[in-house]
Amino acid sequence: MNRRDFLLASSAAVASRALAASPPVQKSNFGVCIYSYGGTRKFADTLAFLDHCNSMGAAGIQMQLTSLDLPFAEKVKAKAAEYGMYYEGIVTLPKPGGEDDFEKQLESAKAAGARLVRSACLGTRRYETFKDLAAWQQFVTDSDATLDRAVPLLEKHQMVLALENHKDWTIDEMQSVQHRHKSDYLGVCLDFGNNLALLDAPDAVMRLAPFAVSTHVKDIAVGPDPMGFRMAEVPIGMGVVDVRGIVQAVRRVKPDTRFTLEMITRDPLLIPCTTDAYWATFPDRGGVYLARALSLVRERGKTWMERVSQEAPYYQQKIADDNLKLCLDAGRGPLAI
Questions:
Q1: Is 58 helix (H, G, I), strand (E, B) or coil?
Q2: Residues 241/202, Cβ–Cβ less than 8 Å
Q3: pLDDT number for residue 23
Q4: Whole-prediction pTM value?
Q5: Residues 229, 193: contact at Cβ < 8 Å?
Q6: What does the alpha-carbon distance between residue 210 and residue 218 come to, in Å, rounded to a whole number?
């Protein structure tokens, strides 16, 4: 059977199984963030993503509203309630003069039933974006100004902002951000794996547990590279992250925090930590961080990591679904995380 025939046969089998009667899917303790699908799948709108995640048994979703119109937001709230799921929003932080748009995002997210919204100061990666220390320091100044604009509006609308540790702030720096802008309406969207890219130890993220109001649950595999190492999201239990331990740490201090998967199916990311350029914005970090990271890769790294982009689009979608299903399964049953 050639590849084309195999694809056709597989598609027919999938369609046949979809038509067959099946029992309701048991709910997981985990929700799903829209970023889990990256470029592997598109959804028509927030309602369609809710439908899809409900079919997999997710506890809820984290996604931006595809329309800020209040009637649409109310439909999202009603659909989530029908499914017994939660909704957490995603917003863009206010640029100078952008306060009105930020307020509109908050109002719509609240109408959709969200008790919090997730955002990040940097949408890219620190070591790829800033070429020198001065550029990073300007980013810190600009981020402080952004949060100074955002916090009063969050307090006005009584909406919590979950600020993600998004390969920008080290654990120490994120703690400082939280202290500088201390508010009942500001916390952390605690990503379990991002800080490995900044050479923080895998368990260091637990120090952000007291600030956690939302999460991006993930496990990370690492592998060697001449320029440093590579890292990639993998199903829970297949990587170097103590997912159970982090979940328990958050539950001890923030029992109302929800756990949302960000299982991104993509090619492994290069962390070029043996290059001079990587270290340009880390003046206070020494060789101990590099030695610890490379030791982790040497002791627990994988010699082969999957290149998803080499697969056909159909298989990329299937791999993404399969990975998420495995992670959702980790949140089911008597031994669930």
A1: coil
A2: yes
A3: 62
A4: 0.91
A5: no
A6: 19
User: Residue 248 and residue 253: Cα distance in Å, rounded?
Assistant: 9
Nearest to 57 by CA among 335, 337, 329: 329
Distances (CA, A) of 202 to 36, 140, 222: 20, 24, 11
205 contacts 297 by C-beta, under 8 angstroms? no
Structural Rg of the chain based on CA atoms: 20
DSSP state of 335: T
Output b/e per residue, 83-104; b: 16+ Cβ within 10 A. Answer: bebbbbbbbebbeeeeeeebbe
> Which residues make beta-bridge pairs with 224?
229
Q: Are residues 31 and 214 in contact, defined by beta-carbon separation less than 8 angstroms? A: no
26-329 to CATH, choices 3.20.20.150, 3.30.930.10, 1.10.3720.10, 3.40.50.2020: 3.20.20.150
Placement of tokens 């120490």 in the chain = 172
Q: Which two tokens stand for residue 251?
A: 């539950």
Distance CA 169, CA 175 (A): 9
CA-CA distances (angstroms) from residue 325 to 234, 319, 332? Answer: 12, 10, 11
Going through the chain in order, the beta strands assigned E by DSSP cover 30-33, 60-62, 86-90, 116-119, 160-164, 186-191, 212-216, 219-225, 228-234, 259-261, 269-271
Q: Report whether pLDDT(308) > 70.
A: yes
Per DSSP, the three-state class of 329 is: helix
Structural domain boundaries of the chain?
26-329
Q: Which residues, at least 6 apart from 13, have a Cβ–Cβ distance to it below 8 Å?
A: none
DSSP 39-50: TT---SSHHHHH
- Report the candidate in 268, 270, 269, 271 with the shortest Cα–Cα distance to residue 308: 268
Q: Is the dihedral of CA 55, 216, 202, 273 positive or negative?
A: positive
Q: In this structure, what token pair is assigned to residue 206?
A: 């637990």
Crossing angle of helices 313-329 and 46-56, rounded to 10°: 60
Residue in the block written with tokens 């990591």: 305
pLDDT of residue 19: 39
Query: What length is written for the chain?
Result: 337
Mean pLDDT of 178-203: 98
